[in-house]
Amino acid sequence: MDNVALILLGVEKLEGGGGAERFFADFFLLYQKHNEKKYNLFFVIDSTTYNSLKTLGRDLPTENILILKTNSTRFKKQIENFRLAFLLRKNKIRILQFCLYTPYYYRFIQLLDKYKLWIGTKTVINIVNCEIPHAYFDKTNPYHQGYINTYGPLFNDQTIDGYFCWNKLFIDFTSSNKLIKKNRPLMSAIESRFSNLELYYPEKKENLIVFAGRLDFRKRPDWFIEAVSVLFKKTPDIFKDYKFLMFGTGPMLDELNALIKERGIASVLKIETNPKLWTVLRKSKVFVSCQDYDNFPSLAITEAMAAGNAIVARNVGQTDYFVKHEQNGFLVEPDSPVGLADALLKAIKSDEKLVQMGRNSETLISTVHTFENFVRQIEDYWSKLINSKNLELI
């Protein structure tokens, strides 16, 4: 059985965000118990990441955990690089998969590229960001230069063996624009994902509508506030029966609190944090997602569906993998805060159908977006990568 490892370093304060980090921690935990697994899976983390995941209830086992000790001397980078190379070589890791990519990981990728034959490990980057194809060449996008700085060196200068993608658009985009210069990495995009169902299941439902996520511009939490404001002005009576809840933290927190006050809805909406969000989603009827570009494969939506929620979401990207209009939720039309308000009102007026919509969400999670289906996808990918010599797009 070949050895494969996930790597996740420097993770702090996951409350209100960290979907990819939480997802791979769950995947590692469940894969260790999987009776039909084809690989021996390790998890390379540091103490900061370990403690952050533990705070969220992810109690990682000691078996197959490889702790990368950090260093505070002026030779920090060199020592940590050596430690990682030693861990990979000692444990005969065939594939090291980065759970997500940030510039923090670049020096480790350089190391793996430079000493690939000595270390004996192939490198996979997990692409979770769906904004790259939209912002990379768009100079009007405020994050354009950041993406050039972050991904340009990766595409131009490093030999990455593979990319495992949340969205197929990334594969189409990099291929059509010939962005990856040094080789043809093995690429694959998922079609289903899973939620850890141990914590997320429905209880007796209450009239709760929930928005939860990192308070970042890309998630468009301001849309939810604006939609609540529209409803409060046009149909104030619904607030006697329904409660709107908002959970998260992030760079927009102060701005959003000011917006709530400015719109005069502080009496019906406030922003809270709850590291045990499953206790809310078990009781809520509707979960809302407003993010730009795509709502698939949002971990928050997956968890909400598993907990029996109808989903209201913008119809962007591969959102229809999750949301089947008027079957397990509502797609926003038109694509605006007013359209979101309309969709929320439809959900409230469909109150008698919401419980069945929640059950439809559960069915979609239990039959399509399952752990077994995700395992099949990622194991097939690992197998092709380990056996490949001339890497090609798939």
Kindly list the characteristics that best describe this protein.
single chain; 394 residues; alpha/beta; Rossmann fold; 2 domains; 6-stranded parallel sheet; 13 strands; 15% strand; globular; disordered C terminus
Provide a descriptive summary of the structure in words.
Helix 9 links the parallel strand 8 and strand 9. The protein has 15 helices and 13 strands. By secondary structure, the protein is an alpha/beta fold. It is globular. It folds into two domains: 209 residues, Rossmann fold, CATH 3.40.50; 160 residues, Glycogen Phosphorylase B (Rossmann fold, 3-Layer(aba) Sandwich), CATH 3.40.50.2000. The chain starts with a strand and ends in a 7-residue tail after the last helix. The strands form two sheets. A seven-stranded parallel beta sheet has the order 3-2-1-4-5-6-7, with helices on both faces.
Helix content: 40-55%
Give average pLDDT, whole number.
92
Named at the architecture level, the CATH assignment of the largest domain is 3-Layer(aba) Sandwich
CATH top level of the largest domain is: Alpha Beta
Question: How far apart are the termini?
Answer: 24 Å
Domain tally: 2
- Order of SSEs: EHEHEHEHHEHHEHEEHEHEHEHEEHHH
Low-confidence stretches: 390-394
Q: What fold name stands as the CATH topology of the largest domain?
A: Rossmann fold
Q: SS-based structural class?
A: alpha/beta
Q: Using the CA coordinates, give the radius of gyration.
A: 22 Å
Task: Determine the strand fraction and express it as a percent band.
Answer: 15-25%
Major beta sheet, strand line-up: 3-2-1-4-5-6-7
